[in-house]
C-alpha cells in the first residue's frame, strides 16, 4: 500500500498517511490520461463559431457583367468567395465538440493521474487548511512553507469557503472540491495539494 508524508501549514512533517492502491498505486495508462484531458478541453469549447457561405450572404443574384467581351474573367455572382463581402468557402458552423468516455475509463484515467503525481513527488497532503484571518497573504505564506512555486491544484473537503476565498486572488492556484476532481487540473499543476479529509473523501468515493 502506498503512503505519503503529511505536513502541516508550516511545512513540518506531522505523520504519514496510507493511500489506496486503487487510486495511488495503479499502472499508469498514458493513453487514457490523454483521452481524459482531450475530452475535458473539448467539453469546454463553445463551438459557436459561424461564418456565412455564399448561399447566406446578402448580395444580388444578377451577373456582374456579360460573359464575353469585357476583358475580365467570367463571373456569375458577387456572392462568390473571391468577391469582397462574398461568402466563405467551407465556412465554420456551430457544432458540439464533446465526446464521451465511459465511467471505468474516467476512473482509470483519474487513478493514473494521481499515481503519476505521487510518483513524481508532486502530491502534497496537509493535515488541514484553516485560517483565523482568511487573507490571500496567509495562503501565499502556506504555499511558501510547502515549497510550492508553480501552478498548484488545491483539493478541499466540504465547508472550505474561507480557503477558496483566500486563494482566489493567486493566479497560479486553482481550488476545487472533491466532487470537482479532474484529470486535466491534476496534470496541469506542478503541485497537487490535498487535505487529509479530502483524501479520505476521494478514497471513499473512487476507491
Care to describe what's here?
- The chain is of the alpha/beta class.
- The chain contains seven helices and six strands, in the order E-E-H-H-H-E-H-E-H-E-H-E-H.
- Strands 2-1-3-6-4-5 form a six-stranded mixed sheet, with helices on both faces.
- The model has no long low-confidence stretch (mean pLDDT 93).
Brief characterization of the structure:
The chain has seven helices and six strands, in the order E-E-H-H-H-E-H-E-H-E-H-E-H. By secondary structure, it is an alpha/beta fold. The protein is elongated.
Secondary-structure element order, N to C: EEHHHEHEHEHEH
Alpha-carbon distance between the two ends: 13 Å
Strand order of the largest sheet: 2-1-3-6-4-5
Average pLDDT figure? 93
Characteristics:
207 residues; alpha/beta; 6-stranded mixed β-sheet; 33% helix
Architecture blueprint of SSEs:
Elements: E1 2-7, E2 13-19, H1 21-24, H2 30-43, H3 103-119, E3 123-126, H4 136-145, E4 152-156, H5 161-167, E5 173-177, H6 183-188, E6 191-195, H7 196-206
Helix pairs in contact: 2-3, 4-5
